[in-house]
Amino acid sequence: MSTLHVGYFNLGLDADPPLARAIRGELVRQQDGIELIASENIVSKLVLEAQGSVMTNKTVEGFAYARYYGGAEYADAIEALAIERAKTLFGCSFANVQAHSGSNANNGVFLGLLKPGETILSMKTAAGGHISHGHPATLTGRDYDIVHYGVSRETEKVDLEEVRNLARKHRPKIIVAGGSAYAWTLDFEGFRAIADEVGAYLMVDMAHFAGLVAAGCYPNPFPHAHVVTSTTNKSLRGARGAMALWNDAVLSDRINYGIFPGVQGAVMLHIVAAKAACFGEAMRPEFKAYNRAALENALALAGRLAEHGMRLVSGGTNTSLMLVDLVNQGITGDIAATALEAVGIAVNKNQIPFDTRPPEAPSGLRLSSSAGTTRGFGRDEFRQIGDWIVRAIEARGDAAALAAIHEDVRTLCRRFPIYDAA
Q: Residue 45: inside a domain, yes or no?
């Protein structure tokens, strides 16, 4: 082999200094900072290695053992392994693990089960729903008739009577349960009763609590849901991708072909390999212990913030995420998030139910215990994080005070290293 080819195959990250600096900078940011964004977690080296494997080089279209491309022996084995593990984890009969993202999984299900213009009943984004469930800026919002339910003004929790009344009035073809900023368990049996009454499919998007379901810490959407979608990152601690799950064989072709070729093309096999890895990890006893700890830590953080006078939307949480109302602090979520980033705490600004402010400068923050629990933080650490959140928001604009908090954050993080941090 020529020197030219040998050099090519052995190029490493150092061959591209600007890219290397950015990636290594991100590693340091993760090692020295506290991650409270609910859409993020910290994957194992097993997941990283699977995702960075030679499966990156292989392209296939179609489904395992029925490809349009040759050379798929090991691709088929990997996808079949991921499917079997997903079915075992969530107690269902069928799984599609090809979706590139949660939005793709949702769009594929909608495309497979609906005709253009048919009605979807889903949670509004300001109440905690996800944009892929019908926000007007998305394909779903453009192609289907979207009706939204919200939450009760009194409890800030889903009111199934409102859902039932809207379903009776609008006769949706799909009712979606689940969202991205809802902190309480959902009544899947109650949703299914409404769906059956109006002849709708019940679709559960469990992206933010899939890991809790796999660990037995949150009710399983099955057997109540007709179809379940989820990302594979977040509480599952896996590759950034998604899946769809169901039990009825009649739906198989519709869902599978809704995803491919409906909304996306070839399979990203390196991601499917990483999904198989995280599903395997989720079958281990340690994963249940992790999710139990994430719940305890979320309660510790929420309790500490409440002690400081911060209001928790819906009164708190029984999942690993929470929504904080900043109105009483006289600050908006974007300003609070900037102050927290200055001390090495990553959060995301978020609207709260009935928010009068826009998404760009909303009244709340969304927080999660998932990533911090992965790196080993316990209740004491999360109570300390609650103190830092309050101090940083109060000290916004005071560079010296923020720098002091930032140093304390780094000290804590170095007690709980990730990826062999020095």
A: no
Please name the residue ranges forming H helices in 357-398: 370-374, 379-394
User: In CATH, what number is assigned to the domain containing residue 277?
Assistant: 3.40.640.10
Contact present, 393 and 365 (Cβ < 8 Å): no
Give the SS3 label for residue 287: helix
Give the H or E element holding residue 31.
helix 17-32
Q: What tokens does 300 get? A: 């510790």
Angle at 108 between CA 163 and CA 236, to 5 degrees: 80
Query: Is the domain of 213 the same as that of 360?
Result: no
Helix (H) or strand (E) holding 231: strand 227-231
**Residue 242 region by backbone torsions, left for phi larger than 0, else alpha for psi between -120 and 50, else beta:** beta
pTM (two decimals): 0.95
Could you read off the pLDDT of 328-372 as tens digits, one per residue? 999 999 999 999 999 999 999 999 999 999 999 999 999 999 999
Token look-up 């140093």 returns 407
Mean pLDDT, the chain, whole residue set: 96
Amino acid at 88: T
Assign 67 to helix, strand or coil. Answer: strand
Look up tokens 């995803």; give the residue: 259
Tens digit of each residue's pLDDT (9 = 90 or more) over 40-71: 999 999 999 999 999 999 999 999 999 999 99
Task: Report the length, in residues, of the chain.
Answer: 422
φ/ψ of 157, rounded to 5, equals: -120, 160
Query: 185 φ, ψ to 5°?
Result: -65, 150
The edge-to-edge listing of strands for the beta sheet with 311-312 is 311-312, 321-325, 364-368, 348-350
One domain, residues 63 and 79: yes
**Within a domain: 312:** yes
Q: How many angstroms separate the CA atoms of 50 and 54, rounded? A: 8
Type of residue numbered 172 = P
> Does 333 lie in the same domain as 234?
no
Q: Cα(129)–Cα(8) distance, rounded to whole angstroms?
A: 46
Q: Are residues 269 and 348 in the same domain?
A: no
User: How many other C-beta atoms are found inside a 10 Å radius of the C-beta of residue 281?
Assistant: 20
What single string gives the DSSP state of each residue in 167-187? HHHH--SEEEE--SS--S---
Residues 6+ apart with CB under 8 A from 199: 171
| One-letter amino acid of 409 | V
For residue 250, which amino acid is it? V
Taking 90 as the threshold, does the pLDDT of residue 10 lie above it? no
Residue 334's Cβ-count burial label (10 Å; 0-12, 13-18, 19+) is middle
Count: domains in the chain: 2
> Both tokens of residue 379?
């209740």
Domain of 406: which CATH number?
A: 3.90.1150.10
